[in-house]
């Protein structure tokens, strides 16, 4: 026999219907509202069956033990370190494992922003998803914050703060999904960290692949999956971000800034900068300084503009 709650040490908050109606019709909580949230430790025999689903989407993060879920004719297992996402309106049944019952943090969310985030993770609203999270401690902290805010009171400030924390949960899950399996993504994460530490260093895809212990083609494919682009483009974006920072916060010459971010040729630096920001480095600096006065470096930028016609 499955039980819905009543576990020693549990925490649970469910908003009254009138509060849900009011909050769903106004402001930020009209876009995303947490209606239920809780924590069930060692939830032996826990389970719920909802043939028609619920009005909100369900997020269950398993921090230890195991569980399962059945929906749309499919049964999936849920292990420690994985999150189960059940879209709104989807009939389902789930429960904890009988020999290794799960400990879970969970929340129910509704609203158009919640629907968008869940729809992206689930590829629509016709199936559940189980994903392995990249940072279990962070997700636990975020869900703990959601529960704490609902435990505080049912005032609009608390509900808005809970909505913000819930959005952080959904964004983390979506980002982890986009990044792919954490074990496969780890080599890419290390390379990205290497590029961020020294954006001016020469970029060799084959050398970075060797650093990651992967073939060049496999590494390039994983990198593109994790970032949405290639290694060279990612490096250029990092360099340009650093260049923008230096253009705004220092008076160093444009050519010197280009050299410091990996572009010793001032003209090439200006071309690369324009390809990202749509203007020359000097124009960018003047815009952010609130002045139209020419400065050192405009001669190079001007010649480039003349060549481009």
Distinctive features:
309 residues, alpha+beta, Jelly Rolls, Arc Repressor Mutant, subunit A, 3 domains, six-stranded antiparallel β-sheet, four-stranded antiparallel β-sheet, 50% helix, elongated, disordered C terminus, sequence-specific DNA binding
Overview of this structure, please?
By secondary structure, this protein is α+β, with helices and mostly antiparallel strands. It has three domains: 11-179, Jelly Rolls (Sandwich), CATH 2.60.120; 180-229; 232-309, Arc Repressor Mutant, subunit A. It is 50% helix and 19% strand. It has twelve helices and ten strands. It has a six-stranded antiparallel sheet. A hairpin with a 2-residue loop joins strand 5 and strand 6. The longest helix is centred in the middle third of the chain and has 24 residues, at 156-179. One of its GO terms (molecular function) is DNA-binding transcription factor activity. Residues 189-287 form the HTH araC/xylS-type domain.
Look up the CATH topology of the largest domain.
Jelly Rolls
CATH architectural grouping of the largest domain = Sandwich
Question: In which order are the strands of the major sheet placed?
Answer: 1-2-9-4-7-10
Biggest beta sheet summary: 6 strands, antiparallel
Summarize the structure.
Helices cover 50% and strands 19% of the residues. The protein has 309 residues and is α+β, with helices and mostly antiparallel strands.
Strand and helix map with partners:
Elements: E1 11-14, H1 17-24, E2 33-40, E3 47-50, E4 57-64, E5 66-71, E6 74-79, E7 82-86, E8 92-96, E9 103-110, H2 112-122, E10 129-132, H3 136-152, H4 156-179, H5 182-197, H6 205-212, H7 216-227, H8 231-249, H9 254-260, H10 266-277, H11 281-289, H12 298-308
Antiparallel strand pairs: 1-2, 2-9, 3-8, 4-7, 4-9, 5-6, 5-8, 7-10
Helix pairs in contact: 2-4, 3-4, 5-7, 6-7, 8-11, 9-10
